[in-house]
Every structure is written in structure tokens, then in C-alpha cells.
Amino acid sequence: MAELEVSVIYRTRPARVGLYTMMALMPVWSIAVPFCLGLFITCLLFNSVAFVPAAIVMLTLVSIPVVSIMLAALCEDETVTVSREGLAFPIMFLPQLQFKRERLWSDLNTAQLTEINDTDRILQLHFGSGGHALLNMKNMSKSDREQLMLSMEVYAKNCKRSPELIEYQNRVQNENRGVDHLSYTQMWEEELSRRFSATSFVPLEPEQILQNGKFTIVRQLAFGGLSAIYLAQQEQKELVIVKEAVVPASAEEHSRQKATDLFDREARLLTKLDHPNIAKVYDHFMDGGRNYLVLEYVRGQDLRQLVKQTGAQPENTVLSWALQIASILEYLHNQTPTIIHRDLTPDNLVQRDSETVVLIDFGAANEFVGTATGTLVGKQAYISPEQLRGKATGSSDIYALGGTLYFLLTGKDPEALTTSRPKDLVPSISQDLDDLIANCTEMEESDRPANSSLLVQRLKEIIASQPGTADSITLSAGHGGKA
Which CATH class is domain 183-472? Predict the structure, then answer.
């Protein structure tokens, strides 16, 4: 996107009731009243009627549809538009805002939060040019609340926020863990805490500049060990994710150079990728002795958090996701040279909408850190035996996919270095899918599906064999071409 613009839906009960009422009455004010108006005008043409009564009736019949249209428009307008320049409020806010519905961020003086009870929290926005806006947080979705909070933090730099509001902003991000990230931020936090050792380094601070002003750090999303994740603005416009990796000073020069070369090589390959189910890697660069990846800011919920919140997923849903993930591997493995992901887990897959999953992270930084420190980086439950020995192949990704499907179907991480059979925990799982997952997680590479293209085909066959499942899942997945 060229610049941040978010539509925050603000649904109030009176507006909803008013809109439904006007819709229910639509046959009256849009058909019956105009029909009566036509009859009355006809009557006036052929009959003599006193002026005053005729004028009153005429005005009434004309006013009803006009007023009804205005009321419907008023009730239907429920969007607070948030952009880089400022905010535009729904029509219902005009009296509060002294009939100036569009306000600049620079005009926002103070923002306060008043908690009336457990459900009613009123956000009070006061503008220097006069007027205010009162927003009840319960009338917005969690993701919209988070986007509004984030926009205020990024753009309303001169606004004084009350301590209650700052506390609430932090609470929203925690509540939205994994949902529409900056819910995405907590996913990165957990990712880093599982992935990196305790070797410390000093992370970047908000407002720090990278690449001579191209990137401005908005906030630290997570940091630990030898890496950090930041939310940043690119050229003061779009939001991006900046992933940082640092070679420890204690590393040998040979290891440092090898790690840097590997990171650079993989980053250049990743920036060429173009697949609808892969978060775009925009750029890579070195600044101040640190290496950075710039990634697409993806809104969605990672599959680990989804399972934590809603439990094990139904088989038809998992099959749909499995086909998409397998198509991602097919695409990566068919690149020249082959791209091996090395870290395919539920944590790195985000549900962008109800049907689509997106791969949001790659193992480039993992290899970078592992090479520099001589340690294995990854999640043991999803690491194949050959990857554990330092010899990751395309088959290692297939192993990790099998473990990921096991987790989605059972809600439990697979046992490390063990052939996984989800049917042992969930008997309702079909034998075909259980056999496929067991096949993917065999200890020997030669016993697994030979390649990701064959895995895509087997998934299509399983989906086609299940009554009703094929109708709800697109069987055209599979993007094995070159970038």
C-alpha cells in the first residue's frame, strides 16, 4: 500500500436498530408514499383543493422519502477512516465535532480513556480546533481497536495520551495475541523466545533510522538472543516488519563471514519470490554491522494461536490448509536453486482470512544465527532427523508439514523424531489422511513422499475422495513454477 489507511467499523446499537427499521419500512417510504404523492398530484390537476391543506399534504409526502433516505444514510455510515493524514468520522459524530468530520492528526491534542464498567470504555479525542469525539470501544472489533491504537501511536505524535489509555493499548495487544497483528507482534515474540538463546545485544529504539532515513523504527515487537523484530515505517508511509540478525562479537571471523554470506544469498533469493500464500520479502540490507530482512506486514492469526483459542481443527479445514501449504513447498522447492524453508511450523503460518493461510517467515535468519554460533536453531518437534544432523533437504520441509498437520488436527505438538499418527488421539480422522501424515513423518527420507509435487497430488486425491469436501476446497492449488 502506498500509505496506511484503515477503515474502522464503528457499530452502535441505535444505528443498527435505526438501519434495520428503515430497511423494514423501505416498501412504505420508497414505494407507497411516492405512489400516494403521484395520486395526490393527479387529484390536484382535476380537482379544486384549498391551497393550505394541499401544501401541507404535498410537503408531508415529499418529506417522508427524503427524511427516510437521510436517516438510512446516517445509520448506515459506520466507518471511521484512518489514514496517514488524519481521521474521518461517521455523520453521527458531526454535532460533537462542530460539523467538521475530517480532522488532522496534528489537530489531536489529547486522548483519554474512561472505563465506565467491564464492557463500556469510552475513548475521548479532543481536537485543538474545537470539538471532540467519544468512541465506545465495545462498538469496534478487537482488530479494529488495535489498528486505531496503532495509528494513533504512529501518527498522533503530539497527542497527550492518558495513563489509562496507554495501559489499555498494551492490554489490547495482549488480548489480540495472534489476531490481526499487531496481534502479529505477539506471534513474533513467542517465535523469538522459542528460537534464540540468551546472548544479549542492544536492540534498536523507537524513532531510530535505518538506511539513511528509508526506515523509521516505530516500536520493538520482540527481541532476544541474537535477533529482534520491529514494526517500522518505510519512507514515512507503509508499515513493514523489519527482522534483525546480529553476528556475536565472540564468533570466529570465518564463521561470521560464512553466516553473512549465507544470509545475503538467501535474502536475495527470497526477494524474488512471488506467491499468493507467501508474505513478500521486500528487501535486505546491512546497517551498523547488523543484517536486516524487510517483510510484508501481514494481518492475520497464526495457526498455533488459532488452535490455542479454538481447539483442534476439523479435517476438511486442515485439508484445505494442507493443500495450500503443500503448494507453497512445491513452489519453493521448484526454484533454482531450490529453497528449503527449514522452519515450517504452525507459528509461521497465518490465517489471513477464513480460507487462506500465508507463510510469514523463512529460515534465513535461523541459518545465519546457527552458522555464526555453531548451534542448531529451530523447533525440535518439527525437525527431521537429517535436519538435526545439519543436512536439511526438501524432504525435511515435508516432515515439518506432517508435524504441522498433526498439531492442527490434535492440538498437540508431535513427539520429536517420531512418526506421527493423529488418528491415535482423534479416531474420527480419516485413514487416508492419517496414513499421509505418518508417511510425511517417517524417519528415513526415502520413506516419505518423493517430492512436494507428489504430496500436492496425494492431498488432492484425499480431498476428492471425501464426500462434500471437494466442493468446499479448491483443487487447483499448486504453484510449482519459477519466480
Answer: mainly alpha
Fold classification of 82-175 (topology level): PH-domain like (2.30.29)
Residue 293 in contact with residue 364, Cβ under 8 Å? yes
Query: Who wins on pLDDT, 187 or 167?
Result: 167
C-alpha cell at 417: 523424531
CA angle 266, 271, 272 (to 5 degrees): 100
The domain limits of the chain are: 13-76, 82-175, 183-472
pTM exceeds 0.90, yes or no: no
Mean pLDDT estimate for the chain? 81
pLDDT at 480: 46
Q: Is the pLDDT of residue 317 over 90?
A: yes
Highest averaged pLDDT of the listed ranges 72-86, 119-133, 259-273, 291-305: 119-133
In this model, does residue 373 exceed pLDDT 60? Answer: no
- At a CB cut-off of 8 Å and minimum separation 6, what does 427 contact? none
